[in-house]
UniProtKB/TrEMBL annotation:
The protein's name: Dynamin-related protein 3B isoform X1
Chain ranges passing through the membrane: none
Keyword Disulfide bond: no
Species per Swiss-Prot/TrEMBL record: Camelina sativa (False flax)
Bias (Basic and acidic residues) ranges: 540-549, 753-770
One Pfam family recorded for the sequence: GED
Region (Disordered): 532-559, 753-778
Length: 778
């Protein structure tokens, strides 16, 4: 192999910047987003350099720059990520300058450092300032830009080397921490990985390739660099490694020869080291034919080409992400609103907030809100659901007699009958029991009003605009005002509900057209009891006449004999006569429109006969009294309960009472189902829509309160300032992308990455003179 087989050294006259259009744009974007620090979420295309401690990473970077500028030492050298931007300038031969300088972003960007030993000292000082002076490690990056006519445009991130044993102030888990730091960079798809491995170690166990494989398992973003080829064991070489036969990589490998420690101590220049590297490859036949994979100059060219192509591929995504971040930040900044200093401006702002809130509140109740959820019921729809599916449905499922046993009804009948035991008048127990059942409707009705109140409170919270977050005092006062206002509206609605139920209990309208009536209730009760007796036959006394054998006229009178009875359940003659007289006194087919009116005639006739019998009995008793001895009565028990055994007549009476209760309860229930929602809507819901704005004006729109209500917290001012700065940076980044020339779309389109990472020329693309050596060969 001759010298002509090697790539030219990177000098000003021999190097043309392949990525002069796009790489500086990305470098500028890095400077822009560096102002955000760790808050930046935009991942820019870059090359991360990874490797184990003493793998030769620093030597590779210095060779790419052509100058000594990195700290040296026996232990870990890179203790903070170093973002290194290489920017090619025009040489003197092209009207530029041969000067080289560096700029640190943490300094004034205009300050140029021409002494590279000073750059090294600044890196050491800045590292110690954050990481301490005893080998500590930090993930806070140092940003350095080097401008020189002897470099290619490349953007690199030098990451701390993977170390196994902690030293100095390093924690015991230093290896895990460094690996985590490295992964935080290389896991991003926008990051290319430069995996550095020394040739005198086992490539299969390379820490750099292992961690790169975790982030890039397919090897699409990884470039392998094999260093220290000159210190491999005699008789061995890295040819198979460079050809990708050991561990294949899509972007291939490049082999380099580093300066030895002796060279560094002897201050051997990098230029001399590159010449020695060139001679080494010429003297090793094993590396014949691998020109495009050997030497630092070829590594620089390869990095430049790959980075340009990678940036071009990432540009559409990068533009989209910057635009999305710009839109979100602008929206956030807008939410903080403008600062208004004048009293008039503040008053207009306060009135605007109150008006917008009331409009949002009304729109939500009416189902016209733009913020209405499509995944669940909200606003007025929930109120309607409470009325129809909670309140009405719950009342319809209630049986008015479910909590009344037959014994309860029988006891109520006996209590209502009192000393008039010969006559059963069902309107007395019915009214007592039906009022009791109507009163059960009060609690669910009041609970319904409370449910609606709770919904209105939820709606009031949902209507709080994002703009109000900047005024916590105003937000709190508005919440208090509407809370008190709704509670005030709840009280009259609940009072109206109580009045409605009291009205229903004060007047039992047995003339209601939907009420079952007494005659119908008697007929149905007789049928139910009769069917029940047939299905459960009862043994009758021998002298009892079966109903089927009685005469039809007598049977009709007998069916009404329940109207007159004694306390023991036996029917009296007076009761039969009273029932017969009652039958005759009324017209045939007359319905029972009033319970008391139905039995009024029977009461009068029965009372007249009882008076006659009582007078006769009194006179006889007085004549016999002197001949009789004294009879003593037992004390009645403290608690009297009705007997569990019911006669047929008592069963009929119970059934009549149940039918009357159910019929009238249904009438009242329907009234309540209709009137309670109306009362709630009138006194609470619609009232709040009509009067809320007026209440806000009365309570909050006061000149002495405006300044207090519109006072912003200090944190909000800080957020507004920070968001404004972020917005400015994103706008600057967006303008920077617009600076990208149209021809950048076709920059280096004549190159593609071939198999094993070799860059090939596409058909029809002419190579420039600077890409060949003097003999026209590569």
């Amino acid at each position: 192999m001759s010298v002509d087989d090697l790539p030219p050294s990177p000098s000003a006259s021999a190097v043309t910047p392949l990525g002069s259009s796009v790489i500086p744009i990305v470098n500028k974007l890095q400077d822009i987003f560096a102002q955000l620090g760790s808050k930046s979420t935009i991942q820019l295309p870059q090359v991360a350099v990874v490797g184990s401690q003493s793998s030769g990473k620093s030597s590779v970077l210095e060779a790419l720059v052509g100058r000594d500028f990195l700290p040296r030492g026996n232990d870990i050298c890179t203790r903070r990520p170093l973002v290194l931007q290489l920017l090619q300038t025009k040489p003197r031969s092209e009207g530029g300058s041969d000067e080289e300088w560096g700029e640190f972003l943490h300094h004034n960007p205009a300050k140029r450092i021409y002494d590279f030993s000073e750059i090294r000292r600044e890196i050491e000082a800045e590292t110690n300032r954050i990481s301490g002076g005893n080998k500590g490690v930090s993930d806070n990056p140092i940003r350095l830009k080097i401008s020189s006519p002897n470099v290619l445009d490349i953007s690199l991130v030098d990451l701390p080397g993977i170390t196994k044993v902690p030293v100095g102030d390093q924690p015991s888990d230093i290896e895990a921490r460094i690996r985590t730091m490295i992964l935080s960079y290389i896991k991003n798809p926008s990051c290319l990985i430069l995996a550095v491995t020394p040739a005198n170690s086992d490539l299969a166990n390379s820490d750099a390739l292992q961690i790169a494989g975790n982030a890039d398992p397919d090897g699409h973003r990884t470039i392998g660099v094999i260093t220290k080829l000159d210190i491999m064991d005699r008789g061995t070489d890295a040819r198979n490694h460079l050809l990708g036969k050991t561990i294949p990589l899509r972007l291939g490998y490049v082999g380099v020869v580093n300066r030895s420690q002796e060279d560094i101590l002897m201050n051997r220049s990098i230029k001399d080291a590159l010449i020695a590297e060139e001679k080494f490859f010429l003297s090793r036949p094993a590396y014949s034919g691998l020109t495009d994979r050997l030497g630092v100059p070829q590594l620089a060219k390869k990095l430049n080409q790959i980075l340009v192509q990678h940036i071009k591929a990432m540009l559409p995504t990068l533009k989209s992400r910057i635009n999305s971040a710009l839109f979100a930040t602008a929206k956030e900044y807008e939410s903080y609103g403008d600062i208004r200093e004048s009293r008039g401006g503040q008053g207009a702002l306060l009135l605007s907030f109150l008006t917008k809130y009331c409009e949002a509140y009304s729109s939500t109740l009416e189902g016209k809100s733009k913020e209405m959820s499509t995944s669940e019921l909200s606003g007025g729809a929930r109120i309607l659901y409470i009325f129809q599916s909670v309140f009405v449905k719950s009342l319809e499922e209630v049986d008015p007699c479910e909590d009344l046993t037959d014994e309860d009804i029988r006891t109520a009948i006996q209590n209502a009958t009192g000393p008039r035991s010969a006559l059963f008048v069902p309107d007395v127990p019915f009214e007592v029991l039906v009022r009791r059942q109507i009163s059960r409707l009060l609690d669910p009705s009041l609970q319904c009003a409370r449910f609606i109140y709770d919904e209105l409170i939820k709606i009031s919270h949902q209507c709080m605009m994002t703009e109000l977050q900047r005024f916590p005092v105003l937000q709190k006062r508005m919440d208090e005002v509407i809370g008190n206002f709704l509670r005030e509206g709840l009280e009259p609605s609940q009072a109206m509900i109580r009045d409605l139920l009291e009205m229903e209990m004060d007047y039992i309208n047995t003339s209601h057209p939907n009420f079952i009536g007494g005659t119908k209730a008697v007929e149905l009760a007789m049928q139910q009891v009769k069917s029940s007796r047939i299905s459960h036959p009862v043994t009758r006394p021998k002298d009892t006449v079966e109903p089927e054998k009685a005469a039809s006229s007598a049977s009709q009178i007998k069916t009404r004999s329940f109207l007159g009875r004694q306390a023991n359940g036996n029917v009296t003659d007076q009761g039969v006569l009273a029932a017969a007289d009652a039958e005759k006194s009324g017209p045939a087919g007359n319905t029972w429109t009033g319970l008391a009116s139905m039995f009024r005639g029977s009461d009068v006739q029965a009372a007249a006969k009882n008076n006659l019998l009582n007078r006769t009995f009194s006179e006889a008793a007085q004549a016999m009294y002197q001949n009789l001895s004294t009879i003593y009565l037992k004390e009645p028990p403290t608690v009297l309960r009705s007997s569990e055994n019911h006669s047929e007549q008592e069963s009929v009476e119970i059934q009549i009472t149940k039918l009357l209760l159910k019929s009238y309860y249904d009438i009242v229930r329907k009234n309540v189902e209709d009137l309670v929602p109306k009362a709630i809507m009138h006194f609470l819901v619609n009232y709040s829509k009509r009067e809320l704005h007026n209440v806000f004006i009365e309570k909050l729109y006061r000149e002495n309160l405006i300044e207090e209500l519109l006072k912003e917290p200090d944190e909000l001012a800080i957020k507004r300032k920070r968001t404004q700065e972020t917005l400015r940076i994103l706008q600057q980044a967006n303008r920077t992308l617009d600076e990208l020339p149209l021809e950048a779309e076709s920059v280096e389109r004549g190159y593609r990455i071939g198999s094993e990472g070799k860059h090939e020329e596409l058909p029809g693309t002419r190579r420039s003179r600077t890409e060949t050596n003097g003999n026209g060969r590569f």
